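chain below, 369 aa
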Amino acid sequence: MSEPGYLDATAEHLLSSRVSSIDVQIEVFNKMLDGWNIQMTSRYVKEDGRRAAIAIIRRFELFTNAYPWNWRPEDFEAWGVHLIGAEGRVDFSTARQYQGAIRRFIDYITDARYGWLKLCRAKFEAEPVVIYNEFNTLSHTEEFEGRPERRALTYDEVQQFFDAADARVSRARRLKRKGSLAAMRDSAMLKDMYVFGTRCNEHSRLDLPDMRHQPNVPEWDQFGAMHVRYGKAKPGGPPRRRTVLLIPEFQWSVDVQRQYIEEIRPLFDPKEHPAIWITERLSRVSKKYIEDVFSEIISDAGLDPILVPHCLRHSFCTHHLEFGYPPIFVQRQMGHSWASNTGIYGHVSNEYMNDQLDDALDRRFDGKR
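prediction:
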């Protein structure tokens, strides 16, 4: 017998109360999702992840017009065709995410230890079956599954992007619009994302104490390093932390950040709010806001709209490598566990490759070429 308040993901516990025969199918399906939510919670899956996974299952149920005990492999395959056709071709990684959610849900309800097989046989004379196999699922064969058009920005494109961000400030001031303060914040925020190589979620959750001194360069004050506390977590794990050091090539950002912290941010009247990037309503700038303002500035700059904020992180990695920093240093700056992950982000130019080859040939032939 479960103790009061104890969360139990088994069918027997979740359907312990009387259910009317009219609504039994809906009730069983909903309770399956409740049980799966409990199981995911026990694996430390974040709330957003659980909500997204459950939404995928509900979409699949609507598509098939059937409940899980009547799903078959052909339904799984037909939905894949539907995603490619009717909804437009989705990214490979997104399609694999959809399939992964269905696989995990099927694994849960077909596990005899949870009792759903027995319950479905008793109530519906049918039971859930495994609807996926090696022939109808996508494999994770490559580290990078994003769209190949998304890449690092060149140095000229970075400058073009930042010029467009600064132009928004000038335009708002000239037109005496209310948004000039936000435009100044956004310009500093996006420059900071580039020089520290942060993801949108990481950047939106930075607090003032995360700005760190770099002992070797005391004149940079607290703008010499950034402590990232909400790094991308491994499945089932807590957020990973890293400290990113400002490099001399990005020294120009010290004045940008100093001006923002000492002059611009106080104008928001943040009181005791710890967030670095704060809104007029005294809340954190959100991940979605960063994505939206990035798209607007990309458009203003006349750059390819396929570019996304994560391209700044690709640029951070690429430019570190082109500046000559060792790959292991760049790997630590990126917060990657494996060098292969860092390699995905490096999009060094042909000019850089040619220079590296020239240096190698000079060493090989003692400069006598």
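The CA atoms of residues 186 and 288 lie 13 Å apart. Residues 155-363 form a domain with the hpI Integrase; Chain A fold (CATH 1.10.443.10).
thats it, cya
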